[in-house]
Specification:
Low-confidence stretches: none
Strand order of the largest sheet: 6-7-8-3-9-10
Distance between the termini: 31 Å
Strand content: 15-25%
CATH class of one domain: Alpha Beta
Number of helices: 9
Helix content: 25-40%
CATH superfamily of one domain: P-loop containing nucleotide triphosphate hydrolases
CATH architecture of one domain: 3-Layer(aba) Sandwich
Length: 250
């Protein structure tokens, strides 16, 4: 792999009032790699993603995207955000736009594509996530799984260097989770660089090159799935994995 890491996160700290959420997070990602972040509620997983793309600037620490520093950068952060797709728990779609319109809007307003070109690209991405036949429907007419797949298509349309997923299935009914995970797994198999926060342990084991276990704002343990799941170093990791497997299955 190339020496230049597509993402480098160094000593990220974040505090909200008296609550220190992140206590010095450091890791790197190579192009084409999928890392999965797991951890209990309140461990700092979502805050870490928001610090990486500067939706919530960290109090201390630095982030680089393909060798360029994102933190403390004099230029507008919007250019970096275009290169870091973000898929949220709650879909964040525009209710007044169709699925196609939701995917097109970033292409026309941010990338400046002509409408015809944007439409062609958006349709391609909707087809990629299995929603070509839902392009003209509005969010209210889509299932939760279809909404989330539209969100993924919107992120893909911007041709990002990597995509951040913040618990992409947590707002979905159980029967709809599989269709979203299948899309993400295909992206992983295709070499998309992804950083995923999830509690879907079986999915994490199948897609991750590395698992990061976040505990109380620090990385307690990280490593390949087979190592972390079968031979965890810490009792806390074993306890968490046992509990979450009981809750969500393996």
């Amino acid at each position: 792999m190339s020496e230049t890491k597509i993402l480098k996160v160094e000593d990220i700290h974040k505090r909200f009032g008296d609550n220190e959420i992140l206590k010095g997070i450091t890791f790197e990602m190579a192009k084409g790699e999928t890392k999965v972040i797991i951890g209990s509620s309140g461990a700092g997983k979502s805050s870490l993603l928001r610090c990486i793309n500067q939706l919530t600037p960290p109090d201390r620490g630095r982030v680089w995207l393909d060798g360029e520093e994102v933190t403390h950068h004099k230029k507008s952060i919007s250019g970096f955000r275009q290169r870091m797709g973000m898929v949220f728990q709650e879909f964040n779609l525009f209710d007044h736009l169709t699925a196609l319109g939701n995917v097109m809007i970033g292409l026309t307003r941010v990338k400046g594509l002509h409408k015809a070109e944007a439409r062609k690209r958006a349709l391609h991405e909707l087809e990629r996530v299995g929603l070509a036949d839902r392009a003209d429907l509005y969010p209210a007419q889509l299932s939760g799984g279809q909404k989330q797949r539209t969100s993924i298509a919107r992120a893909l349309a911007m041709d990002p260097d990597l995509i951040l997923f913040d618990e992409p299935t947590s707002a979905l009914d159980p029967e709809l989770i599989g269709e979203v995970l299948e899309v993400i797994k295909k992206l992983a198999d295709g070499g998309m660089t992804m950083l995923i926060v999830t509690h879907e342990i079986g999915f994490a084991r199948s897609v991750a090159d590395e698992i990061i276990f976040l505990e109380a704002g620090t990385i307690l343990e990280q490593g390949p799935p087979e190592e972390l799941f079968l031979r965890p170093k810490y009792a806390r990791t074993r306890k968490f994995l046992h509990k979450i497997t009981e809750l969500y299955g393996d």
